[in-house]
Amino acid sequence: MKRIKIIGALVVILTIIIGMLLHNKTLMAAKSKNEKIEAYPVTVTDIGYQKIENNLELVGTITANNDVAIVSEGQGRVVKVMNQIGDFKSAGSVLFQLDDELKLEAYKTAEVNYLKAKKDFDRYDALYKNKSVTDAQYEQSKLSYQSAESLYVTAKREYNDTKVTTPISGIVSARLVDLGNFVTKNTVVANVVDISKLKVKLNVAEKDAFRLKPGDDVEIRTDVYQGYVFSGKISSISAKGDESHTYPVEITLSNPKDHQLKAGMFGRISFTSLKNSDLLVMPREALVGSVKDAKVFTVENGIAKLHSVVIGNAYESQLEIISGLKSGDKIVVSGQNNLTDNDKVVVKN
To answer: Which residues make beta-bridge pairs with 234?
Structure first.
């Protein structure tokens, strides 16, 4: 009996405690409801275009305007060398002379046979027009002439191929054979580079590739000529990026005689067309979330609207806006941590 009374007392006490807890919860909910914020105080700013010093500098390798491997189209022993490394050679200049004794005799013989066959054909052609020779005689004369002409052209080409020439004007940068060497067809015998103009090839990030265009001016600096600035222009921007999402860009520049550059040097490229660009920017503190998944709150008629934006480059306290906002939009720069989309706000001065 005593145990039953104790249990009953415990049940009564537990019931009272539960009741008090539920009562307190109801009071707190009512208080919270009464204290609900009608409008969140925020600070806003208007976004717009600003002149931003956007220095893009990259390092590239300076290459020759034209770099040609000279290939021998003939075969034979080198009997004369007419070049040294560092020599300037005009287009068509002979670099090597191969043994041409037999080729020359074959060419002379073919030329004689060709001239004779041509005269015979001209004679038969005149007779054929007067119907003084048969069709068979005329056709035979024509075939002989065409055959002799083919042999003549072949012999002349083989004789000319004993002279190894350069197809471009430039400087001999390598000589791979010497006097007395035997050269076979399609052998690389030298290298000629044209550095009257130069090229720089480099890759730029996709966000920068869309700001650049062919014809834009660039500045090139080297460690060799400290303080000297070379002027160049963008000649091409590839339409296809690589796996790293960078785009090949080619730059051309003149090679001044008083500060002559060599192929293979490093150059620091400054894209002057991006300097002092007018960019749509916003304060960094307005950003909600990360740069890769950027959002901001705008204020329209006292209502906070959440917008997704695409962020470009960062410039100290400013972030470039690629898309998602327009100039003149009012964005929240303080107080946005408590906001959700479509909340009411009051703008603080």
So the answer is: 251
Residue 277 to residue 55: CA distance in whole angstroms: 10
Domain boundaries, the chain: 40-52+277-347, 57-63+194-274, 67-188
CATH architecture of 57-63+194-274: Beta Barrel (2.40)
Burial class (CB in 10 A: 0-12, 13-18, 19+), 114: buried
Helix 135-160 to helix 101-129 angle, to the nearest 10 degrees?
Answer: 160
Mean pLDDT value of segment 37-43: 83
d(CA 238, CA 57): 19
Structure tokens that stand for 269 in this block: 């490229």
Helix residue spans in the chain (DSSP H): 2-34, 101-129, 135-160, 206-209
Reported for 106-109, long-range contacts at CB under 8 A and 24+ positions apart, including other chains, are 106/155, 106/158, 106/159, 107/155, 107/156, 107/158, 107/159, 109/155
Q: Report the alpha-carbon distance of residue 315 to residue 121 in Å, rounded.
A: 83
Mean pLDDT of the chain, nearest integer? 88
pLDDT tens string 241-270: 888 889 999 999 999 989 999 999 999 999
Topology (CATH) of 67-188 = Helix Hairpins (1.10.287)
40-52+277-347: which CATH architecture?
Beta Barrel (2.40)
CA dihedral 235, 241, 247, 250 (to 10 degrees): -30
pLDDT tens, position by position, 271-297: 887 766 678 889 999 999 888 889 999
Beta pairing partners, 40: 345
Per-residue pLDDT band for 109 (boundaries 50, 70, 90) equals: very high
Amino acid identity at 44: V
* pLDDT score, position 268: 93
User: SS3 of 300, please?
Assistant: strand
Q: State the average pLDDT over residues 144-152.
A: 95
The Cα–Cα gap between 39 and 344 comes to: 5
How would residue 338 be classed by pLDDT, with cut points 50, 70 and 90? confident
Q: What is the pLDDT of residue 105?
A: 96
Please list the residues that pair with 303 across neighbouring strands.
300, 344
